[in-house]
Design goal:
single chain
């Protein structure tokens, strides 16, 4: 979790997993990018609802972190369109 996200009022969650299997054993999770990139004033993409920091770090993080990012993006989407 980034303190920048908290400062911007961006909904963020933490995910703890019970599975300790090495993420190298799993297929990588595909990017949720829908090629409609447009950042709002909080640097959240209005296409995939990831933060700019999440987008930039996507290829550098493991599957557990990607799942956290996807969950956060889903929350942001629900908050925006609810």
């Amino acid at each position: 979790m980034s303190t920048d996200d908290l400062d911007k009022g961006v909904p963020v969650i933490e995910i703890k997993t019970e599975n300790t299997q090495d993420s190298q054993d799993c297929k990588p999770i595909k990017s949720p990018c829908v090629r409609m990139c447009c950042l709002n004033e909080q640097d959240i993409c209005l296409g995939c609802f990831r933060s700019l920091e999440e987008i930039k770090s996507w290829t550098l993080v493991d599957n557990t972190e990607k799942l956290r990012m996807l969950a956060n993006a889903q929350i942001r989407k629900l908050v925006r369109f609810d």
